[in-house]
Amino acid sequence: MKIANVIVDIPAMQTDKYFDYRIPEKWETAIQPGMRVIVPFGPRTIQGFVAGIKDRSEVKNLREIIAPQDLAPVLNAELLALGDWLAKETLCLKISAYQAMLPAAMKAKYEKRIKRQDGGANPFLDEVFKGHDEISWKEAQQKGFLPFLQKEAKNGSVEVVYEVKSKANKKTVRLIFCPLSKDELEKRMEEVPKNAPKQKQVLQFFLENPDAKMASPELAETAGVSRAVIKTLLEKGWLEEKQEESYRDPYAGRQFQKSVPHALTAEQKQAIGPVLSAVRENRNETFLLFGVTGSGKTEIYLQSIQEVLNQGKEAIVLVPEISLTPQMVNRFKSRFGKDVAVLHSGLSVGEKYDEWRKITRKEAKVVVGARSAIFAPLENLGIIIIDEEHENSYKQEDNPRYHARDVALFRSKNHHCPVILGSATPSLESFARAQKGVYTLLKMGKRMNNHPLPEVSIVDMREELRAGNRSMFSRELFEKLKDRLEKKQQTVLLLNKRGYSSFVMCRDCGYVQQCPNCDISLTYHRSTNEMKCHYCGYETFVPATCPECGSSHIRYFGTGTQKVEEELGRLLPEAHVIRMDVDTTGHKGAHERMLQSFANGEADILLGTQMIAKGLDFPNITLVGVLNADTMLHLPDFRASEKTFQLLTQVSGRAGRHQLEGEVVVQTYTPEHYSIQFAGEQDYERFYRQEMRMRKVGAYPPFYYLTLITVSHENVMKAMSAAEKIAGFMRNRVSGGSVILGPSACPVPRVKNRYRYQCLIKYKREPRLNETLSVLLEHFQHQIASEGLSIAVDVNPNMMM
Ligand code: ADP
Ligand code: ZN
Ligand code: ZN
User: Fold this and answer.
1) Does residue 218 share a domain with residue 332?
2) Is 687 helix (H, G, I), strand (E, B) or coil?
3) pLDDT digits over 261-301, tens only?
4) Among the atoms of ligand 1, which is closest to the Cα of residue 293?
5) Which one of 219, 302, 677, 748 has the fewest CB atoms closer than 10 angstroms to its CB?
6) Mean pLDDT for all residues in the chain
7) Is residue 306 part of a domain?
């Protein structure tokens, strides 16, 4: 007897364990670990994953698997193990971990149906079922039968069944081919009536292309005939049609010019050397490729992948969602052609599924994609590359709360392969690891075009105000904008939108209120008109005048892109502006279209939020303006300075990437802040040293680890009291060196009518933390299930909101 350990598709803690099911004899050899199966569960029929197979079970009255849902495992042994690891590390349910690794199309959809069980004895049911055995739930509902049927269900005359539906549908096309041999074809050519030269034309085509297989419209066009002609030939049986599975290829019809490897510069050669030898020696080593923007990092990725392919292996390249532009995809497709599969959120569910299947069939060897592409089911990985490794989007903010970098390191150990983390502004954590020798540091300090990095000018907006300029453009930026318009060169204007209106600042001296205990900006809460620290819970009133200089120009800070656009229209009516923000890029492909039109020179100014900071590589951009460098600086987040430095460095890198030299103007109310100063000098390493000192003093990462527990409930008292219990529970169980902060209200204290409280654990070494957290979750299980309490645990949180 064979027994399967099954993880069922019910996202609840009570069911987060293996359930034993007997494998029916006929499927004993067919059902394997990693396959999806349909199983009975209580009165329902649901989907599950076979996690393992064994010979005996302690359970009496074992139920049987109803049917397998796959012909081959969808999760191989490595991914199953990865799922278990994810569940443990991020404290998520196994089912969530498994589902996160698969394309959305493979998530089960259930259809409820009502089945007649009375054997025809109850005449009242005849009217409902009309001679059928079952009807759909939807139909019963629409026709108003439900109340009646619910009564009947109680006495057993009807039963509700859940049918598992697979959303994944494969797309097929009808292709036309010629079944005739050459001799036969030639014979038929002579039989074609004189008045039908078009038919002859088609046969001639197949004579020249005996293996051709095409959809009818395509064939008609290629052979230069109408579709009626093809129909006639099909009727004669000289051509035949067949159904063939086709992939939805989002890049179909695009031409990718073949690109050849560049001869590497001396600096590139030095950087790539250790990577190539790690690839050749199957060495699990992590490289931090620290190279300024435009130093040729992508070329290093491409040539490392080439070596991996030469070894008969495969590669994963992660790129932040927002930089997965056609430009970026082109660089990989034009080097590796059909070997490349692309996975990103712009694809439809079906397209993603098709790309995934291409990978499982080993038709793609290089996977380029956003965060979840780290789960690509490649079985012979030779390298994993994470470009812009410092990007926030590599951390999933929802269950499972994993960081793609951690998954990459885990998988690279399984495959004995190297990892490259690339960035011009590495995360502090990664750079610190490189300093300690955990990662191997590879440095590239020169830009490809040998131009220096663009000149950055920092403008003090307080001075502007003093000089009577109340506009959102400083005099310097405005002069440069006009100059670029005259020269017909392009400008990128960045409005730093994050943190908008959430802090209070003095317009005269730049003062921003800080928490006395935490060295972090206080957040303005509109509902109560108070300033709060969301780390420790400190509260204070909103000052009417600046405590620093006494000015009354103290207020919330921020402007929207729309307002900037209006002001541009007023000041520079002749300028063509493209505005890019969440409002204007909502439609599929809008982002891409806007960039394309800017690339085509259809606008002088590209105005946008964070989303324009990356991936732009246009020769005619010679000016970058940052309207408000500070906003992010005052976010209640210990990474505020790091994020500001990264953003300013990234956006500065957009200017002067080609022949023309670039300039950058950064407008700020806090020009003396080190992250703005060092971004202006483009000096990452000095920024790193200064920021490390701050982190050490504040006991933040990379000196300490963090785990954030967020509690929410519709009732504010329940949320608060649960948070207090949790803080107490943890305080009693962590070691002496660890600190528990809170509970305090979250910076966004209510979301969808749920009140939120949080509690932060800071620790250096807490080897049993995950176990303790599991116990905690179990402890509150009842309240979670029946009282609507929710507890989210985020290990190494990225967002403190
Ligand atoms: P990064 O990824 O570091 O920003 P890129 O890889 O985009 O830099 O390189 C910048 C430009 O230099 C690209 O247009 C690229 O094609 C080009 N490039 C890279 N390496 C070489 C090389 N060895 N020789 C000539 N051009 C190169
Ligand atoms: Zn002031
Ligand atoms: Zn505080």
Assistant:
1) no
2) helix
3) 999 999 999 999 999 999 999 999 999 999 998 899 999 99
4) 4
5) 748
6) 87
7) yes
Ligand 1 atom showing the smallest separation from residue 449 Cα? 12
Phi-psi group of 773: left, alpha or beta (phi > 0 → left; psi -120 to 50 → alpha; rest → beta): alpha
How many whole angstroms from 499 Cα to the centroid of ligand 3? 18
**Residue 518 annotated as lining a ligand binding site:** yes
For residues 180 and 89, membership in a common domain is answered with no
Nearest residue (CA) to ligand 1, atom 19: 296
Which atom of ligand 1 is nearest to 301's Cα?
6
State residue 704's pLDDT score: 94
What is the total count of domains within the chain?
7
Is residue 271 a contact partner of residue 291, using CB atoms and an 8 Å limit? yes
Whether residues 183 and 301 share a domain: the answer is: no
- The answer to whether 762 and 706 are in contact (CB under 8 A) is yes
Structure tokens at 8: 């069922």
Q: Which of 246-255, 310-319, 666-675 bottoms out in mean pLDDT, i.e. has the lowest?
A: 246-255
State how far the alpha carbon of 329 is from the alpha carbons of 254, 462, 657, in Å.
Answer: 12, 43, 19
Ligand located closest to 531 CA: 3
| Same domain assignment for residues 71 and 123 | no
Ligand 2 (ion): residues with CB under 5 Å are 506, 508-509, 511, 546, 548-549, 551
Q: Relative to the CA of 292, which ligand 1 atom is closest?
A: 3
Torsional class of 611: left (φ above 0), alpha (ψ -120 to 50), beta (otherwise): alpha
- 506 belongs to an annotated ligand binding site: yes
Q: What is the pLDDT of residues 611-654, one digit of tens each?
A: 777 667 777 888 999 998 887 787 778 898 999 999 888 888 77
Same-domain pairing of 30 and 123: no
Is pTM, for the whole model, over 0.90? no
Query: Which are the contacts of 229, defined by CB distance < 8 A and separation ≥ 6?
Result: 196, 198, 199, 202, 220
**Which single residue is written with the structure tokens 């987040």?**
637
Q: Are residues 642 and 569 part of one domain?
A: yes
Between the CA of 794 and the centroid of ligand 3 the distance, in Å, is 20
Q: Is 536 annotated as a binding residue?
A: yes
pLDDT of 615 reads 61
| Matching residue, tokens 């031409």 | 255
Pocket of ligand 1 (CB under 6 A): 262-265, 268, 291, 293-299, 448
What are the structure tokens assigned to 275, written together?
A: 């990577």
136-186 residue pLDDT tens: 888 887 888 877 887 787 777 887 766 666 555 666 778 888 888 888 888
> Does the annotation list 746 as a binding residue?
no
Are residues 658 and 675 part of one domain? yes
Asked if the structure places residue 449 within a domain, the reply is no
Torsion of CA 239, 241, 247, 252, to 10 degrees: 40
Ligand nearest, relative to CA of residue 519: 3
Q: Are 563 and 523 in contact (CB under 8 A)?
A: no
What is the pLDDT averaged over residues 353-368? Answer: 90
Read off the CATH number of the domain in which 790 is found.
3.30.70.260
Q: Which of 236, 226, 296, 294 is closest to 261 using CA atoms? A: 296
Q: Which of 269, 298, 385, 442 to mutate to test the pocket of ligand 1 (most atoms within 8 A of CB)?
A: 298
Lowest-pLDDT choice from 395-409, 602-616, 635-649: 602-616
HEC string of 536-572 equals CCCEEECCCCCCCCCCCCEEECCCCHHHHHHHHHHHC
Q: What is the pLDDT at residue 481?
A: 95
pLDDT of the residue at 53: 96
DSSP for 734-778 reads S-TT-EEEEEEEEEEEEETTEEEEEEEEEES--TTHHHHHHHHHH
Q: Which atom of ligand 1 is nearest to 263's Cα?
A: 23
Asked if residue 255 belongs to a domain, the reply is no
Please determine, for residue 79, whether its predicted confidence score (pLDDT) is greater than 90.
yes
Residue positions counted in the chain: 801
On whether both 138 and 179 belong to a single domain, the answer is no
pLDDT at 501: 44
Provide the residue type at 519 as one letter. D
